[in-house]
Give the backbone structure.
Amino acid sequence: MSHLATAKAMIAAYNAQDVDTYVSFMTEDACEAAYRGAVVREGREGTRKGLAEAFAKWPHNKAEIRDAQEIGNYVLMREHVTRGQASDGSPLVAPFDVVAVYTFEGALCARVEFIR
């Protein structure tokens, strides 16, 4: 499977809120982070836990791929994210766009950085 196909499969799992499938595409020590900034989810287990919490709060959360390209060990995707109503009654989050940079080590994703 190409890196681009893997990243798209990750988004499909994300949209299905299937955290186990999502993290199965990641290395054990993978992380999600702000671009060139703080890590927000560390390791496969930290990512699983963080996404499960996010999906519990935003059960209608979705990411639509607007553009995607593979460059060597990287996949760049422009994603349009909608959260929907939060389950905890917190204010509605306006839809937003991010550029996500997926970094691969071998066949697995080692890091996802978000530019927002």
The chain has a mean pLDDT of 96. The first strand starts at residue 26 and ends at 34.
